[in-house]
Each structure stands twice: as C-alpha cells, then as structure tokens.
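User: Teach me something about this protein's shape.
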Amino acid sequence: MSKKSSNDKDIQAISVSKSAQLDLFSLLDARDGDYSNSIDIYDSLPKYSLERRRRFTDIRQAAAKERECRVGGRVIKVKVRPALIETRPGKPELVYPGEREEIIEDALRKLAVNGGIAMIDGKVGVLFTFYQLRNELKRNNHEFKLSEIKEAILVCRGAQLETVSEDGETVISSSFFPMVGLTTRKDLKLREGDTKCYVQFNPLVTESIHNQTFRLYDYKTSMAIKSPLARYIHKRMSHHWSQASSTNPYTPRLVSFLKGSPRGLSDRMATNVRAMKMALDTLKEHNVIDSYDDSERIKDGKKLTDIVYKIYPTKQFVKIIKKANYKNGIISTKKALTASEESE
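Assistant: First, the predicted structure itself:
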C-alpha cells in the first residue's frame, strides 16, 4: 500500500459538514433506488484507460495519456498521469485508472446520493465503510476483493487528471480523489469491512454539485452494462439528451464520438464501425435504445470516412429522461427558494 499523502487526514481529526446544496444532490426518495446522479463535464471526459496493460514499472513506459473530447460546444484536451502505488513492499508500480476504478467511483457516488455525501474543508466527498461499498458493488454484480477496492481508491488518489480548454486555459488539474480520510492507518490494515473512510471527489464534481449541473440517470442499468463504450454512450445520452423522444433521434457522428470516448478511435475504420455496432446492440439488449440507423455514410470516393447515426430511445429510457427533467425542476425551485431566503 502506498504511503499516506500529506493531504490525507484521519477521520477523527476532520470536521464534516452538510449544506442545502448537498441535500439537493441527495434528492432521491425510497422509490429512486435504481438511480444516481451524473456529473456535467466530468462524466464526459475520456479519463479511464481501457487498454489491457495499465501497470508499468518503468516510468518511460508510462507517460501521460492525452485525449480530447467535445463537451457543450467546447473542445477539452485531457491528460491522465498514472498513480504511483506500492502493490508489494519495495515493488512500486505506475497504474492508470481503468474500468475497475470507474465502477468503484460510480458506486461511491451512489453511496453519496443515498445519504453518505459530506463536505470537508469546502470540498465534496462521501463517508462510507468498506462493507457498505463492497455490498453496493455486489448488489450490482461487481465482485471485488477488499484488497482490490482499497487499491482502486489508492489509484484514484494518486492518478492525476488535467483538462485544458482550446484557448490553452487549464480548467482543472487534480487527482481523481484529491483526499482520502481514514479512521487510522492501523485500522485500515487490521480491520475489515467496517473500516470508516472518506473520499473527496474531483473538483469538477464539487463544482457540478455547487452549480446544480448534475442530472439523475439510470444507475442500475449503467452498472449492468458490461461494455465500457456502451456504458459511456448511455451516460452521455442520459445527461445531455434532455429532449429524448421516439421522434427525436440522438445523432452522434462515429469519428468524433469515438475520438472523445474512453475507447478512442482506431486506425482501421472497420474496427470503429464494429465497436459502435456492438455498443449499440448492447444498449438494445438493456432496453435503452429501440433501434438505430447507420445508413448515412460519409465517403471520400469509395473510402468510408464517417457515419452519422440516428439512435431512437425506448419508452423506458424516455420515461427516465422525463423523470430527470422533473427532478431538475424540483432542484431549480429549491435553489431559487434557498437563494431568496438567504437574500432576506
């Protein structure tokens, strides 16, 4: 296990606070057990590595991974640097956050939505026990050993995420989890699932919660989707497609969409087309989309250069989008009432 950072703190020594903004993020009742909140910008970034090899012992093999994506009309360049962790005594490794870390971070956010959200030093995070986290993962058919969960948290603690806008301005530069709070180091080593822990989310998550730019999405379905690309498409549609209807298709372009996804764009177009087809077919299997049309093909002579898709949602997906819109309406109303009370 890696050494404790100077930014990490003992749970007993920190002051945990709540606020009206945090209550809005937790605005889910007993009937909303299948849902969580997606985060504006942060969830759209291609920040997790889907490559088979994510561990390196030679620093020359583990330079920052650079990608770019388009979010809300802006092109954002993304750099991810691996975490340096000690998996065995005297055996440090550089590890990129991958699918395991994505799943565990989503589960932690679900625990936050369910009442575990807390603010420490003005930053948003979640209070939980490893027992709670492991049960949440098992409930969604993701089995991880306790050691794997702890390592994933340390990877997110050490991995650096940097985003830069088109004009060269750095939007954010921080680790995935800037601070981890533990009951004691001894407890973490000796105790099992009831060890208390606090994880601080990335600053982009805190910003989204403060600005109320988060949005309800079908967490249960997302966690059930095994394909990382299909899961990414599902989150993008859930967060950005607020006008979803059976007559209003979602229309991503193959090249730009894959380029900005965690999968990335392959050199061979046939490989890209096949990957998108498999992802969309997976979403059909999970009752997210009803059908899709890939007949609008852009060519340079006989060479295929891009595809414009028309993706049609299921009635169930539209119903969830309407539910998210309704929740956003409640949040906007409560936000306005809170602002009015504070100004009096």
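Now, about its shape. The chain has a mean pLDDT of 86. The longest helix spans residues 315-343. If you'd like, I can walk through any region in more detail.
User: That's plenty for now, thanks!
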